[in-house]
Amino acid sequence: MNWFTGVVVYVLIWWTVLFAVLPIGTRPVEDADERSGWRGAPQDPHLLRKVIVTTLVAGVVWFGAWLLITSDYISFRHGWFAAPND
């Protein structure tokens, strides 16, 4: 995997992990809007903490993906997943 592919894979993993981490620990606003009943965005979303956690988790997942991609455990060049040599 070259550096460009590594960055693209990291960004994709980071974005996916962000949407998995965002709802953790959020609480809705206590009092709903009187007219619509809408509670709106969370009262204290802790976005900086979630970005840091997302970055760390994405780094661990990316490292696992890098190990899997660079190893011969799953290969599309030879073995079970290889394309036929036509």
Taken as a percent bin, the fraction of beta residues is under 5%
Mean pLDDT: 86
Question: Which overall shape is indicated by the principal axes computed on the Cα atoms?
Answer: elongated
pLDDT below 50 for ≥5 consecutive residues: which ranges?
Answer: none
The helix content is: 40-55%
Order of helices and strands: HH
Quantity of strands, as a count = 0
Structure classification: mainly alpha
State the end-to-end distance.
Answer: 26 Å
Rg value: 20 Å
Q: How many DSSP helices? A: 2
User: Quick one: biggest sheet?
Assistant: none
Report what the structure shows:
With 86 residues, the chain is mainly α. The chain has a domain at 3-26 and 43-70. It is built from 2 helices and no strands. The protein has helices spanning 3-21, 47-70. The longest helix is centred in the last third of the chain and has 24 residues, at 47-70. The radius of gyration is 20 Å and the shape is elongated.
